[in-house]
Protein backbone atom coordinates (compact mmCIF):
# COMPACT_ATOMS: atom_id res chain seq x y z
CA UNK A 1 0.00 0.00 0.00
CA UNK A 2 1.26 3.46 -0.89
CA UNK A 3 1.32 6.17 1.78
CA UNK A 4 1.33 9.94 1.59
CA UNK A 5 2.59 12.09 4.41
CA UNK A 6 1.57 15.53 5.62
CA UNK A 7 4.41 16.97 7.63
CA UNK A 8 5.39 20.06 9.55
CA UNK A 9 8.98 21.22 9.83
CA UNK A 10 10.18 23.65 12.47
CA UNK A 11 12.73 25.98 10.93
CA UNK A 12 15.77 27.60 12.52
CA UNK A 13 13.83 30.88 12.84
CA UNK A 14 11.01 28.99 14.67
CA UNK A 15 8.61 29.32 11.74
CA UNK A 16 6.73 26.28 10.47
CA UNK A 17 6.66 24.77 7.01
CA UNK A 18 3.90 22.35 6.02
CA UNK A 19 4.16 19.97 3.08
CA UNK A 20 2.99 16.69 1.59
CA UNK A 21 5.11 13.88 0.13
CA UNK A 22 5.11 10.18 -0.66
CA UNK A 23 8.59 9.69 0.86
CA UNK A 24 9.06 11.49 4.16
CA UNK A 25 12.72 10.57 4.71
CA UNK A 26 13.76 11.76 1.25
CA UNK A 27 11.71 14.96 1.49
CA UNK A 28 13.08 15.99 4.88
CA UNK A 29 16.61 15.36 3.60
CA UNK A 30 15.88 17.55 0.55
CA UNK A 31 14.80 20.37 2.85
CA UNK A 32 17.82 19.82 5.11
CA UNK A 33 20.35 19.78 2.27
CA UNK A 34 18.90 22.87 0.58
CA UNK A 35 18.43 21.36 -2.86
CA UNK A 36 16.12 24.17 -3.97
CA UNK A 37 17.51 27.67 -3.41
CA UNK A 38 14.02 29.12 -3.96
CA UNK A 39 12.39 26.95 -1.29
CA UNK A 40 10.93 28.56 1.84
CA UNK A 41 13.19 26.44 4.03
CA UNK A 42 16.44 27.16 2.16
CA UNK A 43 17.57 30.08 4.35
CA UNK A 44 15.89 28.66 7.46
CA UNK A 45 17.97 25.51 7.86
CA UNK A 46 18.48 23.43 9.82
CA UNK A 47 14.91 22.19 9.95
CA UNK A 48 13.38 19.62 12.28
CA UNK A 49 10.48 17.28 11.54
CA UNK A 50 7.94 17.98 14.31
CA UNK A 51 4.75 16.42 12.90
CA UNK A 52 3.92 13.70 10.41
CA UNK A 53 0.57 12.08 9.59
CA UNK A 54 0.14 9.36 6.98
CA UNK A 55 -2.71 8.89 4.51
CA UNK A 56 -3.52 6.21 1.96
CA UNK A 57 -5.34 8.65 -0.35
CA UNK A 58 -3.41 11.52 -1.93
CA UNK A 59 -6.50 13.74 -2.08
CA UNK A 60 -7.01 13.42 1.68
CA UNK A 61 -3.35 14.28 2.29
CA UNK A 62 -3.52 17.34 0.04
CA UNK A 63 -6.75 18.52 1.68
CA UNK A 64 -5.22 18.16 5.16
CA UNK A 65 -2.06 19.99 4.08
CA UNK A 66 -4.15 22.89 2.76
CA UNK A 67 -6.17 22.95 5.96
CA UNK A 68 -3.06 23.12 8.14
CA UNK A 69 -1.55 25.88 5.98
CA UNK A 70 -4.59 28.01 6.81
CA UNK A 71 -4.27 27.47 10.55
CA UNK A 72 -2.83 29.77 13.17
CA UNK A 73 0.49 29.00 14.80
CA UNK A 74 -1.38 27.91 17.97
CA UNK A 75 -3.42 25.34 16.05
CA UNK A 76 -0.29 23.95 14.40
CA UNK A 77 1.40 23.68 17.79
CA UNK A 78 -1.64 21.85 19.19
CA UNK A 79 -1.27 19.01 16.67
CA UNK A 80 2.51 19.03 17.01
CA UNK A 81 1.92 18.43 20.74
CA UNK A 82 -0.66 15.75 19.84
CA UNK A 83 -3.26 17.81 21.73
CA UNK A 84 -6.32 17.37 19.51
CA UNK A 85 -8.65 18.61 22.27
CA UNK A 86 -6.80 21.94 22.38
CA UNK A 87 -7.21 22.11 18.60
CA UNK A 88 -10.98 21.81 19.05
CA UNK A 89 -10.95 24.63 21.61
CA UNK A 90 -8.89 26.84 19.32
CA UNK A 91 -11.32 26.20 16.47
CA UNK A 92 -14.23 27.80 18.35
CA UNK A 93 -14.84 31.34 17.14
CA UNK A 94 -14.62 33.80 20.01
CA UNK A 95 -15.27 37.00 18.02
CA UNK A 96 -17.99 39.25 19.38
CA UNK A 97 -19.73 39.04 16.00
CA UNK A 98 -19.84 35.23 16.09
CA UNK A 99 -23.30 33.67 15.88
CA UNK A 100 -22.45 31.82 19.11
CA UNK A 101 -22.05 35.14 20.92
CA UNK A 102 -24.91 37.01 19.22
CA UNK A 103 -27.56 36.62 21.93
CA UNK A 104 -25.29 36.76 24.98
Automatic annotation (TrEMBL):
Q: Which InterPro entries match?
A: GIY-YIG_endonuc, GIY-YIG_endonuc_sf, UPF0213_domain
Supply the Pfam families for this chain: GIY-YIG
SUPFAM superfamilies, per the entry: GIY-YIG endonuclease
Q: Which domain of life is it from?
A: Bacteria
Domain GIY-YIG span(s) in chain numbering = 2-78
Protein family membership: Belongs to the UPF0213 family.
Protein name as annotated: GIY-YIG nuclease family protein
Origin organism is: Pedobacter aquae
Amino acid sequence: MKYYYVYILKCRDHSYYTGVTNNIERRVEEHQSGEDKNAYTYNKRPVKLVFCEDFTEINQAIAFEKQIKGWTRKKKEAIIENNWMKLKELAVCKNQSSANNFNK
